[in-house]
Amino acid sequence: MTLGEIKELLDADVIVGEEKLAMEVKAAFAADLMSDVLSFAKPGSILLTGLTNPLVIRTADTMDLLAIVFVRGKRPLAEAVELATQKGIPLLATRFIMFETCGRLYKDGIRGSITKAGES
């Protein structure tokens, strides 16, 4: 599934990264704890989160995540948008809660970075 298809599925707005909507996405990781992202997310996934600060962008960059989708109608802080632009990380925002966002993506073929904690 492409990031553009995810945008449509989630009725999401593109905040930055319109030029990367053709990228392929196979996996996602959902968390509001960046320590969980650092421990469990796999490179090449997208991140679903409600956190909006620059730490989210730095974490995604460190973990080589493809994009970030902000859930619950959240919008990233201006500093986060600026950093994502510099790092080339697409940012999307959806009004769906995290549970609904995950369910929609899973139903359409996106899988989790891991299936159980402790698995690779």
Could you outline the blueprint of secondary structure elements for this entry?
Layout: H1 3-9, E1 13-16, E2 27-30, H2 34-40, E3 46-49, H3 54-62, E4 67-70, H4 78-87, E5 91-93, H5 98-107, E6 111-112
Parallel strand pairs: 2-3, 2-6, 3-4, 4-5
Antiparallel strand pairs: 1-5
Find the structural class using helix and strand composition.
alpha/beta
- How many domain units? 1
The CATH architecture can be named as 3-Layer(aba) Sandwich
Looking at CATH, the homologous superfamily is HprK N-terminal domain-like
Poorly predicted regions are none
Instruction: Give the CATH topology.
Output: Udp-n-acetylmuramoylalanyl-d-glutamate--2,6- Diaminopimelate Ligase, Chain: A, domain 1
Shape: globular
Please compute the radius of gyration using only Cα atoms.
13 Å
The CATH class, by name, is Alpha Beta
Number of strands: 6
Describe the main β-sheet briefly.
6 strands, mixed
Bin the strand percentage: 15-25%
Q: Level of helix content?
A: 25-40%
Mean pLDDT, all residues: 95
Helical element count?
5
What does this structure look like?
The structure is a single chain. The protein has a single domain (about 5-110), classed as Udp-n-acetylmuramoylalanyl-d-glutamate--2,6- Diaminopimelate Ligase, Chain: A, domain 1. It has about 120 residues and is of the alpha/beta class. It has five helices and six strands. The chain has a six-stranded mixed β-sheet, sandwiched between helices. α4 links the parallel β4 (about 65-70) and β5 (about 90-95).
What characteristics describe this protein?
alpha/beta, 18% strand, Udp-n-acetylmuramoylalanyl-d-glutamate--2,6- Diaminopimelate Ligase, Chain: A, domain 1
